Amino acid sequence: MKPIWIVDDDQSIRFVLEKALLREELPTRSFTNSREVLQALESDDEEGGPQVLVSDIRMPGSSGLDLLTKVKEKHPGLPVIIMTAFSDLDSAVSAFQGGAFEYLPKPFDLPKAIELIRRAVEESQREEVSEERMAAAPEMLGQASAMQDVFRAIGRLSQSNVTVMITGESGTGKELVARALHKHSPRAGGPFVAINTAAIPKDLLESELFGHERGAFTGAQTMRRGRFEQAESGTLFLDEIGDMPFDLQTRLLRVLSDGNFYRVGGHSAVKANVRVIAATHQDLEQRVKEGVFREDLFHRLNVIRLRLPALRERRDDVPMLARHFLQQSAKQLGVEPKRISDAALARLATFAFPGNVRQLENICHWLTVMAPAQLIEPKDLPPEIAGSAPESAPVPAAGAPAQRSPEPATVMAPGAAPAAQGWESGLEAEALELLASGRHDVWDALTKRFESKLILTALANTRGRRIEAAQKLGIGRNTITRKIQELGLED
User: Fold this and answer.
1) 155-174 pLDDT, tens per residue?
2) Which of the listed residues 125, 160, 253, 460 has the most CB atoms within 10 Å of its CB?
3) Pairing relationship of beta strands 270-271 and 275-280 according to DSSP bridges
4) Could you tell me the CATH superfamily of domain 159-308?
């Protein structure tokens, strides 16, 4: 294990901390000033640097705050604890702004100081693992079984040019999957071109897709290549395909059928060498029944279908995604990445995330700006999450968290909705959202999630003992066994 580095010009402080840490079987190394620390960090020390740095704020020569700044430039993930006998506001603010893990006023209670150092060690080890995971898989993240299924599908399709349909709720990362399919395909050397068919007015969409000839309409002063031509030898990603106007669906079907299209106002066929990946959050089968989506186009697009799970279906991924987005937000804003406590992660994992991964990303961006300290605690979370009910509250149905009204706040996270009153309101909100989406399986969808949550909670309570779980739920053991199989809870 890497040692704890102690920096203080007071020999008694170094001695006390060294002895206390050694009793805790934590190795140490001591320094009397900042210059010695910086020299040690620059040298190829066989110890490989510190696990945690504990530094006094006022020392001869360079101060602890100056040392903090220089250390963070080269070792941004290293937890630094600043000690001082001068407990003033400016020092505390400067320490946290510089990225200190914690601020420790002197004289300190030794057991509390050791506990703080232990927390810093745990954070350091967690950051090392997190950085390894991010370096290994920066493209897409997900350990949940549902996401592993998606990754396996991408792998199987890696050498294929087949048309793919990606379905899933808004914010689940459909474009990320499309980009991954392109990156790992034989067309990876070609362009990846994306277009949201719902975001472009109907009158302009045809020209956007297929291009136009000079003089085709008022304002068309030059010939323009459309997205199909721009994606030549590559991949064209058609997002929100369910909103494509009906007459344009006919033209798209023609391209998919024989690979040819005409620019608007053109008379010569253009050959398209493009792989098409489509995506939608809508139920296309229902759109076909309603007569607003062509059945033949649906079957042409629906060669291979990938369904992306909602974030509430992969709650185990929330901690990893949250840490990733906090790192990402800090890099975008040019600030020190904030850390998030296990308690805050546990609270996050109970939230329903109606906006899915995109909402979590926005929340992490909000936390990077708004959280008052470097370590994010449950009280720092946005009102709609921090205001959710404690663990002792009734288990919410349909995967929706129990919530209570948030405390008054002037700043909300992007896309946030006010917290609901109780789990029944959460269920009502979820049902309304599904009903508004046009789905016709709302009863089955919510019932399955309700039953899954009840059974998993009971099994967790009985440590996996099915008979005892069935007794507590008031159902027969054959019933719980059958439900576990039907709901796919065997794993």
Assistant:
1) 888 778 888 999 999 888 89
2) 253
3) unpaired
4) P-loop containing nucleotide triphosphate hydrolases (3.40.50.300)
